[in-house]
Structures are given as structure tokens and as C-alpha cells.
Design brief:
about 425 residues; mainly beta; Porin; 16-stranded antiparallel barrel; 5-stranded mixed sheet; 4 helices; globular
């Protein structure tokens, strides 16, 4: 043991760095992407690299991760700008906003390379959430009959150990409407320095028309937090025989798009604090009867305020708008549809449509345990004509090792209590 201490002391004298001691972990050394050898340093928070004017020279990935090391190396490239332990920790927190599957348990270990260079070992703890979920909504319709709406979602993450995300969503509303979405995201395909996303949507509305949307984009990190997507969209709408008799015309458009997404919440399923944002903009040429410039803007901003161990306040703002150049009318297929579990709770799915809508959701969370949330909510929506709609209700979310269950009841505040709607969402966790 004394020999071990002498070796550590001599090593400290040789390197001559301004730190208290060296420490050899259970992993005595680690080899990096370029063959460098890392010897670990005492990770005291008093150790600041700013005095040496050093930044991280090489990033090491601890063995045993379930993501390919080439992918992780690219995700954590921003660490090479760290000049101190606090700045490295801040960069790690920022990287999590781009990749929410990086768990809070992820740690950084620091060490010296040959030629007195600095290296950092990423001890990655992942929290992938592949799941299969279903939503059922039950409520009375205008003809007093009971209507049932449903949604199925298959969500796969890291299917090929490359941190990919694949979604397949199917929705059925109370009427004859049906919605299908397929989406696939790859953060670094073929070790390219950028990510990709493809998406396909087919929307059948009340046997009136079929609306098809195809999207493609690439992703980059332009700032410390979140991911930016840049790409293009193509839309085509074809009326059915019924729709044609109703005067619905065909529609097509081509546009460029920009999207910015970030997730800084403290939990992926039952968050109590943090921030989520999703900004999207599109500009292109729409062809209805004649061509015109068309624009679309979407913003979702979700903020959770931690009050104490038992209570949190969640506020979400959901704003969407679409307009065409001059006085060109917005096509039926361009309208924003809202109502139901994911927007205005207590109402039927997609019962409203408008070219502009702003929805505010307020949830008061009661957290009796880490795995159970009870909440009361109020939703407020208004359109371009300032036609306000209100709903309120109660709900519960519970997470177990293998599933997440959510039950909520909401009702439109201007209608009878019996007009309320129950939503049940069950999620089976596959990871």
C-alpha cells in the first residue's frame, strides 16, 4: 500500500499539475478513439482547469454501453470546449436536452493523457423508453350517442444500437376519420456529422379527402441546447367522390422547414420540473386554384415549476397558425384541427378547426410518490375570432416497472357535466 502511495506521489511530481492528488480508479486506464491512454485524476470540485488554460483533448467512452461508441463520441463532441469541471457539467446538461435518453446518472471522469493533455471518460447511463401505448376516449356526441376514439403508438428507441427513434401512430376519431404517421430519426447515420429524419403522414377525413404529407430533414446542434432540423415537405390532397360533390378541391404544396426541439425536464414520464420546447416553421408554394406563398408556424412551450416535494405547476402553451399570401383562402386540408386528449381535453378529438389557434394548459400536480401523479387541470383555447373554449378536469398518472397508466376526465365548462369525456392511456414499457 505504501508503494502504491509513493508511485502516486511521484506521478504527481512528474506532471507538476496544480491538483491535490492523483487517484487510480478500479479502471486503471482507458484507451481512446485515437489510441491515447487516460490516467484518472482526483475529481475534487476544487480542481479547475482554467489555471492551465486547458480544454478537453480527447473523449473516451466507458466499455459496456448499449450505443455504438462512434455515435456517443459525436454526441459528446461539445465536451472538447470544456475548460473546467463546472463547464463540462453544464455542457453535459445541455447535451441531455438534445438526447433525453441520456440519464441523469451519467458521469464524467477526468484524467491526463500523454504530453500532459486532458481527457474525459464518459460513463454513459441511458434511459431508453421503447414502448407500446394505446389511448381510448369515450364521450357523448351531439346526437346523444356514445362516441369512441382511439390511438395506438409503437415507439422504438435504439433498435440498432445507434440511438435511433422510430414511431408508428394510428388514430381513429369518433367519425370516419383515420390518421397514420410513420417517423424515423437517426442522430448520426453512417457516422455522418449530422442526423436525419423522415416522416410520412396519411390523413383520411370523414370520407371527404385523403391528405398525404412527406417530410425529410437533417439535424444539427447550432447552440448548446436542443436540436435544429432543416428540410423540406411535400403535401398532396385528393378529394373523394363525396368530397368532390361537396366542392373540396385538390391541393398540393412544396415547402422548406425549420424545427427546433429541446427537452430539459427531469423525467421522461412523470416530470416535476424543467422545460420542453418545440418550434417549427414552414414556407413554400401552395397550389389550390392558383399558386400562392404559404406559411405555417407551430410553437409548444412546456414549463414545470417545482413548488415543493408534493406539488408542481405545469404550464403548456400550444400555438399554431397557417396563412397564404394576400387574401388567398386557406384550404380545408391546411386547417389546424384541435380538441381531445392531446390539445383541449374534455372535447371530442379534432372537433374544431381554424387557421389560427392558441391553447393554454394548466396542471396542478400532486406528487404523493415518485411513481404517482394526481392532477387538476384547466385548458383554455381561442381562435382568430377570439372564440374562447374552456375545459377542466382531474387525472392520474402511475408508473410501474413495466407500464404507465393515465386516466383523466374533462368536461367543457359551458356544457353539462354529463358531456365530459374520459380518456384512458396505457403504455407498455418495452425497455
Amino acid at each position: 500500500m505504501r508503494i502504491f502511495k509513493i508511485i502516486c506521489a511521484m506521478t504527481g511530481l512528474i506532471y507538476g499539475q496544480n491538483m491535490e492528488t492523483f487517484r487510480l480508479d478500479s479502471i486503471l486506464q482507458q484507451y481512446g478513439e485515437f489510441g491515447g491512454r487516460l490516467v484518472f485524476i482526483n475529481e475534487s470540485k476544487d480542481f479547475v482547469l482554467e489555471n492551465d488554460k486547458k480544454t478537453v483533448d480527447e473523449i473516451f467512452i466507458k466499455d459496456g454501453t448499449i450505443i455504438r461508441k462512434q455515435v456517443i463520441q459525436k454526441m459528446f463532441t461539445p465536451l472538447k470546449g470544456a475548460h473546467s469541471i463546472p463547464t463540462a457539467e453544464n455542457i453535459l446538461a445541455a447535451v441531455r436536452t438534445s438526447y433525453p435518453f441520456i440519464a441523469n446518472r451519467t458521469q464524467l471522469h477526468y484524467g491526463r493523457l500523454e504530453d500532459k493533455k486532458l481527457g474525459v471518460l464518459v460513463d454513459l447511463e441511458s434511459n431508453f423508453n421503447s414502448h407500446f401505448s394505446g389511448i381510448a376516449g369515450v364521450g357523448k356526441q351531439d346526437n346523444e350517442s356514445w362516441g369512441v376514439a382511439g390511438e395506438l403508438n409503437i415507439h422504438l428507441e435504439n433498435a440498432w444500437q445507434t440511438a435511433t427513434t422510430t414511431d408508428l401512430i394510428w388514430k381513429k376519431n369518433e367519425g370516419a376519420s383515420q390518421y397514420i404517421l410513420f417517423s424515423h430519426k437517426d442522430p448520426y447515420p453512417f457516422s455522418l456529422p449530422f442526423g436525419t429524419k423522415v416522416e410520412f403522414v396519411q390523413d383520411l377525413r370523414e370520407d371527404e379527402y385523403v391528405h398525404t404529407i412527406t417530410k425529410g430533414a437533417f439535424s444539427v446542434r447550432l447552440n448548446n441546447q436542443g436540436l435544429w432540423y432543416f428540410g423540406g415537405n411535400r403535401e398532396e390532397l385528393s378529394p373523394t367522390v363525396v368530397g368532390d360533390s361537396m366542392g373540396i378541391s385538390s391541393f398540393s404544396s412544396e415547402s422548406i422547414s425549420m424545427e427546433y426541439i429541446g427537452d430539459a425536464r427531469n423525467d421522461r414520464w412523470l416530470p416535476t420540473k424543467g422545460l420542453f420546447w418545440h418550434l417549427q416553421g414552414e414556407a413554400g408554394i401552395a397550389t389550390i386554384i392558383q399558386k400562392s406563398l404559404s406559411y405555417r408556424f407551430d410553437l409548444i412551450f412546456d414549463k414545470l415549476f417545482y413548488l415543493n416535494e408534493k406539488f408542481s405547476l405545469q404550464t403548456q402553451f400550444w400555438n399554431r397558425a397557417v396563412w397564404n399570401e394576400g387574401n388567398a383562402s386557406v384550404h380545408e386540408g391546411q386547417f389546424i384541427r384541435y380538441g381531445g386528449h392531446n390539445s383541449l381535453r374534455g372535447f371530442q378529438e379534432d372537433i374544431f378547426k381554424s387557421d389560427f389557434v392558441s391553447i393554454s394548459n394548466f396542471n396542478l400536480l400532486f406528487v404523493p410518490s415518485r411513481m404517482l401523479h394526481l392532477y387538476a387541470f384547466t385548458d383554455i383555447a381561442f381562435d382568430k375570432k377570439f372564440d374562447f373554449k374552456f375545459s377542466s378536469g382531474l387525472g392520474m398518472r402511475q408508473k410501474t416497472k413495466y407500464s404507465v397508466m393515465e386516466i383523466s376526465f374533462g368536461w367543457p365548462m359551458e356544457e353539462a357535466f354529463s358531456r365530459g369525456k374520459v380518456h384512458v392511456k396505457f403504455t407498455s414499457l418495452l425497455d
